[in-house]
Amino acid sequence: MDDLTLHEDPRSGNCYKIRLTAALLGKPLACKQYDIMQGETRTPEFLRDVNANGRIPVLQIGDRFLPESNAACWYLAEGSPLIPGEAFDRADMLRWMFFEQYNHEPNIATLRFWLQFVGEANLSPFQESQIMAKRAGGEDALAVMDEHLAGRDWFVGDSVTLADIALYAYTHVCEAGGFRLQDYPAICRWLIRVSGLPGYVRMS
Ligand SMILES: N[C@@H](CCC(=O)N[C@@H](CS)C(=O)NCC(=O)O)C(=O)O
């Protein structure tokens, strides 16, 4: 089997998804760290050798490079119970992973990044003008999740899948972006369920 190396910044939830998937599956994963605040994913070498899109995470599989967190999770989990065997459930899992990338991460992860790492005082006028819309978009996403999880344990079927891992990564740290988890009781119960999984690892 090819060696697996995660090119990551440990503060990133997108990178954490991949580490959590590997840990739940018991797959060994080496890590190479970058500081995105210092532009280390924008160097000519990184753009040429690792990801022309200038972003982590990138999962290196032997001498091949796979960017995009959810694609990397899929690669690791192929053939495992983290991907449902039944066609509808598998597509439904992808539905939540696309939701995560379109409705959840661009609002919740971005606000966390701006408020926790960039700092409110350092935001550009454009970023400042986006805060309210990002807050509203993030709250909408959390409300959809909370309603879906009321009365069920996992996003798809009756066991944990990549949908749960993808959505867990930034949800469990969303308070750093100013969101209030206590407003979402079904999410709170699900977060405890995920953190109790055998093999679970913390974000950092
Ligand atoms: N859709 C991508 C998003 C990747 C992404 O936004 N990465 C951020 C960190 S979470 C990054 O590398 N930022 C550094 C930069 O843009 O220079 C994924 O899911 O992997």
Q: Could you please describe the fold and organization of this structure?
A:
The mean pLDDT is 98. This protein has two domains: 4-77, Glutaredoxin, CATH 3.40.30; 87-195, Up-down Bundle (Glutathione S-transferase Yfyf (Class Pi), Chain A, domain 2). It starts with a strand and ends in a 9-residue tail after the last helix. It has seven helices and four strands; from the N terminus they run E-H-E-H-E-E-H-H-H-H-H. It is of the alpha+beta class. The relative contact order is 0.15. Helix 1 links the parallel strand 1 and strand 2 (30-33). The chain has a four-stranded mixed sheet with strand order 2-1-3-4, with helices on one face. The longest helix is centred in the middle third of the chain and has 32 residues, at 87-118. The protein has helices at 13-25, 44-49, 69-77, 87-118, 125-149, 162-171, 185-195; strands spanning 4-8, 30-33, 58-61, 64-67. It binds glutathione. Glutathione (GSH) binds at residues 12, 14, 36, 41-42, 54-57, 68-70, 101. Residues 12, 14, 36, 41-42, 54-57, 68-70, 101 line the site of glutathione.
